[in-house]
Amino acid sequence: NAGFDLTLAHGGGKVPAAILSAARQLEWDLWPALHPRDALLVSCPPPRGFCEGLRALGIEPPRFVTRREAGATCAGFRFTPFGWNAEALRCAEDVLAQADAPDAEVVRRVNAREFCAMLESRGASADAATPVTVLRTVRELDRWLAAAPPGRQVAKGRHGFAGIAQVRFTVPADDAPSRGGLRNRLRRLLARHDGICVEPWHDIREEWGALARVARDGRTAAPRLHRLLTTSGGGFAGALAGPEVVPGAVAGLLRASAARIGHALHAERYHGPFAFDAYGHRRMGGEEYLRMPSDLNVRLSMAAPVHGLRARMPDRTILFAQFPATQA
User: Fold this and answer.
1) DSSP bridge partners of 214
2) Which residues are CB-neighbours of 146 under 8 A, at least 6 positions away?
3) What is the DSSP string of 145-213?
4) How many whole angstroms separate alpha carbon 28 and alpha carbon 54?
């Protein structure tokens, strides 16, 4: 259910069908994250020769299983969706797999961008925290836009994914004809995604990411770290993992942040996987800051495949790339 994030707002009912369909097709990108003894639920079997071609490269793929087959072949397996939503719960029941799901309302609350912004404000110094404005209604949006000074901003849907539901824009002057067009774009984004968060458009220097899991008892597993690759529009373009890819000082900060985030999620009664991003940016005066976390999702990550390949080839540096999402 790779469209997990997009279904948390209005059940996904206001997101265009083409965007939901494109997100669900990303199921295939996740196979490298799985162990060869695992099974990946797919809508259709792989094309002829696909698995044989991987084995010829020395890579043993997982089993590819359709939902129709899964009931007979995956009974007793531990079920791990991309993220826990209603579709995931139905799927776990269909395939008779063991499921340890957190509460649905908890998932929706801690996956929202304002929860991430709250964690960032707690961990950052006063001068480093990024101001994030949460807008839930058209009236709040119009009021914000009327008072916003000219400048570069980013609007993000409350439950974004891989660059979907992001609009980068420059606030025009008060009398600019383009201000009305911008208002319409942001109103559309707000309606589809149950609100938006607006924040400054930073000059990003480098980006990193971390994958971790918090157990029911609150223990947080050591995070897996990577360099994050994105487009200028915020779309996920890939990840790089290997020895010394993440500088030691940054790695230490990411590990400490993973522990803090795991503690906060446990306090909210969430358990399961989570992934967060961080980036370095430079402000107008030339000062450099590390924003962390810049994004947080309580699910698996599109960077999980790079770590699966690293487990197969631990002595190698792995680059995993994909065509980025650009739709809003």
Assistant:
1) 220, 272
2) none
3) HHHPPSEEEEEEEEEEETTEEEEEEEEPPTT-THHHHHHHHHHHHHHHTTSEEEEE--EEEEEEEEEEE
4) 14
Cα–Cα dist 78/36, whole Å = 15
Q: On the CB side of 304, how many CA atoms lie within 13 Å of its CA?
A: 23
CB contact at 8 A, 245 and 226:
yes
Give the global pTM: 0.90
- Tell me the β-bridge partners of 226: 209
At 210, phi and psi to the nearest 5? Answer: -145, 140
Which residues are paired to 210 by β-bridges?
225, 276
Task: Return the exposure string of 161-174: e unless at least 16 CB atoms fall within 10 Å of the residue's CB, then b.
Answer: bbbbbbbebebeee
* Residue 262 near residue 288, CB atoms below 8 Å: no
Three-class SS of residue 244?
coil
What one-character DSSP code corresponds to residue 232? T
From first to last of its 328 residues, the chain has per-residue pLDDT tens of 888 888 888 766 777 777 777 777 778 888 999 999 999 998 888 888 999 999 999 999 999 998 888 877 887 788 999 999 988 988 888 877 788 999 999 999 999 999 999 999 887 655 567 889 999 999 999 999 888 877 889 999 888 776 777 888 888 766 566 677 888 999 999 998 889 999 988 888 899 999 999 999 999 999 999 999 987 777 788 899 998 899 999 999 999 999 999 999 999 999 999 999 999 887 766 677 889 999 999 999 989 999 999 999 999 999 998 765 444 3
DSSP, res 28 = G
E strand map for the chain: 39-42, 63-66, 133-135, 151-161, 164-171, 196-200, 203-214, 224-230, 236-241, 272-282, 288-297, 318-321
